[in-house]
Amino acid sequence: MAKRSTSSIPAYKRRRKGRGFFGWLIRIVFGLIIFSILWVLAYRFVPPPVTATMLGDLFAGRGIEKDWMSLDEMDRDMVRASIAAEDSKFCQHSGFDWDAIQDAAKRNASGGRIRGGSTISQQTAKNVFLWQGGGYARKAAEAYFTFLMENLWGKRRIMEVYLNVAETGIGTYGANAGSMRYFGHDASAMSATEAARIAAVLPLPKKRGAIAPKGFTRSYGNTIAARIGQVRRDGLDACVYEGSTAPKDKTPPPSKAQRELPGTEYETATPPPPEPDVDASEINLTVSDETGLSITEPAEDDPASAATNVEASAEPEEPVQQEEPQPF
């Protein structure tokens, strides 16, 4: 029997078939949108149980250490250090720092060292809902989830989730677990110096350590510590603490014995003796203008630019560490 030609199928049936395909496509897209909204909305109230990065550590045979701590309990200097290091406009933007993105694009196009323009909101979207790496598809999904978080969570929740899921060491997630790992006490008792050290390892947590940092990591930590006071004075953390009942100062509890945590075989396990908080006057810094805080990691190829005013977060490659006399 001869096969029926397409031309013999009535036009209205072909149109119906086409509408059926696009109808299913629309249903799938609509379903994904509803699912993503419910997913983001759920994490407004409950901690994310696991992330893609955590699963990667588990599949690699490493254990993971995480210990959720609310912002009401966490020392405020940890929030300020994160803003100073990663996103000085956190309370001003709506999820995207367009100036930082344009600056990073120009720098990358000119052949300079690759820099990112991601805000804390974008980093949280990537850490919680997506995977590490690049690509246009992931960037588009990151922008979408950032938009949802900014509108469904608010700044305080974004910061709280960020400081509990960001990688702070090999197999270690969150500021509280990082504080236990490096300093032997929880994040409610961190000093400004300790908070700055945690913030300094955030861009490259598998390559940097907060215990007795050297060279580049130490100088970057010094810069962050010196700017914590400016974040407080200029109210750059106001969107996080406005109307909060969190105490401003807490009496540090007795230090706990440091636990054996994943990845400690890669770094020094003995914490250094307590150090005084870094005084900004002891550090050679170039202070930004009156428009507010501006900080990035010091350029590795130009020591004189250790505190230059770049309105973007940076994720530089780790240079060979050299012992330098620093107040840190």
Shape descriptor reads: elongated
Distance between the first and last residues' Cα: 87 Å
- Helix-residue proportion: 40-55%
**From the coordinates shown, what is the CATH architecture?**
Orthogonal Bundle
How many separate helices?
Answer: 11
Query: Strand fraction band?
Result: under 5%
Q: Ranges with pLDDT <50 over ≥5 residues? A: 249-292, 298-328
Average predicted confidence as pLDDT? 76
Secondary-structure element string: HHEHHHHHEEHHHH
Main sheet makeup? 3 strands, mixed
Quick one: CATH superfamily? Biosynthetic peptidoglycan transglycosylase-like
Instruction: Using the coordinates above, name the CATH class.
Output: Mainly Alpha
CATH topological fold name: Penicillin binding protein transpeptidase fold
Domain Glycosyl transferase family: 64-208
GO molecular function, one term: peptidoglycan glycosyltransferase activity
Pathway: Cell wall biogenesis; peptidoglycan biosynthesis
Membrane topology: Single-pass membrane protein
